[in-house]
Design goal:
By secondary structure, the protein is mainly α. Helix content is about 75%, strand content about 0%. It has 2 helices and no strands. It has helices at about 5-15, 25-45. The longest helix has 23 residues, at about 25-45. It is rod-shaped and about 70 Å long. The termini are far apart.
Length: about 50
């Protein structure tokens, strides 16, 4: 099999294949990180006096 035939076959497989990691997992991970950063920000700034 030639290199161009293998490239075309790999492109066809990649086109119809499932992603390696679900987009929902990535979204949930990003949401968890952002919520933990928001909680840390609120906790850190909660006891400070206004200037």
């Amino acid at each position: 099999m030639s290199l161009s035939a293998l490239t075309i076959q790999a492109a066809e497989i990649a086109e119809h294949g499932e992603p390696a990691v679900s987009p929902y997992v990535i979204g949930a991970l990003a949401l968890g990180i952002l919520l933990s950063l928001l909680l840390a920000l609120i906790t850190f700034g909660g006891g400070r006096e206004h200037s």
